[in-house]
Amino acid sequence: MLLFLIACINGEEPPTSVEIPNEAYEWGCYDYQEHSEIEILAAVCNDFESLTVSIMLVNDGYVEQGMYHEGGCWWNSTIQQEENCIEIQELFITGEINGW
Fold first, then answer.
1. Which candidate, 23, 36, 32, places its Cα nearest to that of 87?
2. pLDDT tens across 44-95, in order?
3. Ordered domains of the chain (ranges, CATH)
4. Taking a C-beta distance cutoff of 8 angstroms, is the pair 22, 99 a contact?
5. Whether the Cβ atoms of residue 84 and residue 37 lie closer than 8 Å to each other
6. Bridge partners of 22?
7. Distances from the Cα of 78 to the Cα of 10, 28, 81, angstroms
8. What three-state secondary structure class fits 4?
9. What angle do CA 69, 23, 92 make, to 5 degrees?
10. How far apart, in whole angstroms, are the C-alpha atoms of residue 47 and residue 50?
């Protein structure tokens, strides 16, 4: 809350999170003997400060990781986890836009 007030006092808008549409990214999950690996590739051309991928697991688990900006419109992330791919319930990406 304090950061929000400081941003408003300085005339800056607080950061805004936007959910990225499913059509803008693709992902795949691969099970290996020791772990599972989730690869995510997003094509998002907006001026985002950062993208974060969030994964909801069937057992109420939750994984969150920032994505790497490769340049241009391309972002990627590779997440290793102990759970099997079948345990992924939902995957979504949010982008953070700083105010003007």
1. 36
2. 988 889 999 999 999 888 999 999 999 999 999 999 999 899 999 999 999 9
3. 16-97 (2.60.40)
4. no
5. no
6. none
7. 37, 10, 10
8. helix
9. 65
10. 9
Going by the DSSP 8-state scheme, the letter that residue 6 receives in this structure is H
**Could you give the C-alpha distances from 35 to 5, 24, 81, 98, in angstroms and in order?**
43, 27, 6, 36
Which is nearest to 21 in space by CA: 65, 63, 51, 64? Answer: 51
User: What does the block give as tokens for 84?
Assistant: 């099997």
100 pLDDT more than 60 = no
Could you tell me the two tokens for 97? 């836009």
Largest CA distance in the chain: 53
pLDDT digits (tens, 9 = 90+) for 34-52: 999 999 999 998 888 999 9
